[in-house]
Amino acid sequence: MSQPGLPANLSARPPPHLYFHPPRDSTDPPRRESSETERVIQPSNAAKASLSAAEPSTRGRTRRKERRRRGARTQWKKLLWVRQSLPDNYTDASTFLDHLVRNPKLQPYEFWRLVADSTVIVQHVCSVAIFVCCFTGIFQERISPITVVSWGSACTVIGWITWEVWVDNHEEMNNRRLGSQASSEDDLPSGDSFTKETSSASGTQTPHAEVMGDFHDDFHPPPEQWQGDPLSNLSPRNQQRLITIKSAALIYCAVLGLSPILKSLTKSTTSDSIWAISCWLMFINVFFFDYGGGVGAKFPASLSTNASLMASTVLASRLTSTTHVFSLTLFSIQVFGLFPVFRRHLLHISRTLHYILTFCLVLGAGGGVAVTVGGGSWTFLLLGCTLGLITAALTMGGASWWLIGLQKWKDEIVGPWDAARPRLRRRWA
Amino acid sequence: MPYTIAMVSDFFYPQPGGVESHIYQLSTKLIDRGHKVIIITHAYQGRTGIRYLTNGLKVYHVPFFVIYLQTTFPTVFSFFPMFRNIIIREQVEIVHGHASLSNFCHEAILHARTMGLRTVFTDHSLFGFADAASILTNKLLKFALSDVDHVICVSHTCKENTVLRASLDPLMVSVIPNAVVAENFRPLAKDEPIATPRQPSSGALSPQRPLPLETVTIVVISRLFYNKGIDLLIAAIPRLCAAYPYARFIIAGSGPKAIDLEQMIERNVLQDRVEMLGAIRHEEVRDVMVRGHIYLHPSLTEAFGTVIVEAASCGLYVVCTRVGGIPEVLPLHMTRFAKPEEDDIVAQAGSAIAAMRAGRIRTERFHEQVRMMYSWTDVAERTERVYDGIAGVLSEEEFYGCVEGEEVAGEVGGSSSVVRGRSGVANFALIDRLKRYYGCGVWAGKLFCICVVVDYLLYVVLEFIFPRANIDVVRDWPRKKAIDETDETEKLGEEKTWIT
Question: Where in this chain does the record put each Glycosyl transferase family domain (chain B) (predicted)?
Answer without folding.
Answer: 208-345
